[in-house]
Every structure is written in structure tokens, then in C-alpha cells.
Hints:
Layout: H1 2-17, E1 20-22, E2 30-38, E3 51-60, E4 63-70, E5 73-75, E6 80-83, E7 90-98, E8 105-120, E9 127-142, H2 147-150, E10 154-163, E11 169-178, E12 184-187, E13 190-192, E14 201-213, E15 218-231, E16 237-253, E17 264-266, H3 268-286
Antiparallel strand pairs: 1-17, 2-6, 2-8, 3-4, 3-7, 4-5, 7-16, 8-15, 9-14, 9-16, 10-11, 10-15, 11-12, 12-13
Amino acid sequence: MRKVLRFCSILCAFSLIAPTVTAGLIPLDISITGNAELDTTYSASTTGNASQSANMSLVIGGGTTLTSIANLTPTGATPLAGTLTDFGDGVGVSAIGSSTAGAISEVPDFFFDIDFSLLNSSATDTYQIFFELAYSVSAHAQGNGTFIDNGSDAFVNSEVNLFDDLAEEIFASDLTSDRRNGDEIGDVLGSTFPGTNGASLSDSGTFLFDITLAAGASNNFSALVRMDGGAFSNDAFFNGRSSAFISILSADNLTAVQPPSQVPEPSTFILFFMAMALLQVKRKINN
Length: 287
């Protein structure tokens, strides 16, 4: 029950940072497809007392389709893919990795790929398309006392990365809580070291970006949601979370005269994490 309450409290925090989006249909000239997929090439099964799980979400026309992942086993479509139709539609992943004390345990790698493809089929008009990445990342490696005192040794790394069509990183939130080697906080500019060992680290917010498509042009971008962790003494344990949801906010026709602004409505990012919360609650009740 404590885990359920903690999850719901995180959901409330997400609702505070989630902005509004513009109601309306994506212009017919613009085709945007999105997909989320567990990267089975780099992901690996847990060991010891560790566990990993995730939910992938696809929002089309305001409706949500979910695929859940238990360890490396999916329930639902994978990859989870479709063509977006409305502003506010998007693709998301929420992944969790953790362990309990009592055994040497590891989440070797838990990788998810998010990909978007864009096409402007107009023969004359140029469009500027606006997107939002909403993210939440946390990491905490724990044990009895300090590492120097009794040898408690654990780490966990959680991250979200966004790449443009040239595979250049344009956003990163990368947290490592490490009792032995020290904690690390990374972003697109590099890393900082807060001087702590095994602290509870968290980062959440939104990142806005846009892509301009000339008539007949195409483009793409991608994101990575990842975590790994290990507890290398019986008294140590860890927990981490990496969540990302990428949605289309609006599109401006830079060639034609712009219509009046449309009425804002709540972001589907809220709907995504509400669905995640309901799934977690349902699982706790069934257990």
C-alpha cells in the first residue's frame, strides 16, 4: 500500500508540471507516426532480488493504448506504434527497476526506444511543428550505514535522452546514485558530482522543441529511456524510475494565413500517468 501511495503522490506532482495543449486535429498535410519498444538487444533479465517493469503508452485521438512489461515479457502490442491524429497525442514509457536487501542483485540493463517519423505531404506549404517531452527520473542506492562503515555497495542509474535526426543529443536527464563511487548528475552539457554517496536523486519537468518541415520534406527524432542498477552486498538495495512522454502540441503553417487560436485543454500527459497509476493499483490489489 505504501508503494501505491508513493506512486499516486508522484502522479500528483506530474499533474502540477503538465502544461496545457491546444485542442484540434493535426493538419492533413502532416503525417506523424510514433512508436515505443523494449530494446531486446540491450535489455537483460534481472538477477537476485531485483525486479524491473514498465508500461508503454500510445495516445491517438485522445484514447490510450497500453503495453505492460514484466521483466522482459510484454503484455500487449510491441512495438506499440501508430499515426497521431490530434494535438496532445503522443508516445510514452514509464520504467521501474529495484531490488530488496538479502541477496546480491542486479538490473543489468533495461532499455526502451521511442521513435517519431514526420512527413509534410504538401506541395506548397511549410509547417513548424511543436513538441513536448515530459520526463521524470529518480535514483536511490541504499544500505545500512555508509559504504566505508560496513561495505554496503549499490548503485542505480536512471536516464532519459532525446536525439535529433542526426542522432545528436539535444536533451538529457541522467541520474546515478552510487554508494561506492559517488553520485553523478548529468545533462546534455555534461556531468556534475554533488559529493554525496547513495543520495536520493530526482529530476522532472518538460522540454519543448520544434521541427520545421518544408513542402515535401520528412524528418525524424528519437528518445531513449534506460536504467540499470546493482546491489553487491546483502544489506544493500536500490530503486529507480525513468519516465518520458513525447506529445505534439501544435503546428503552424508558415506559408498560409494562420486561423484564430484554439481553446486549450488538459495535457494527455496527465492521462498517461493516470493510466500508469491505475495499473499499479490494480496489480497491488490482485497480489
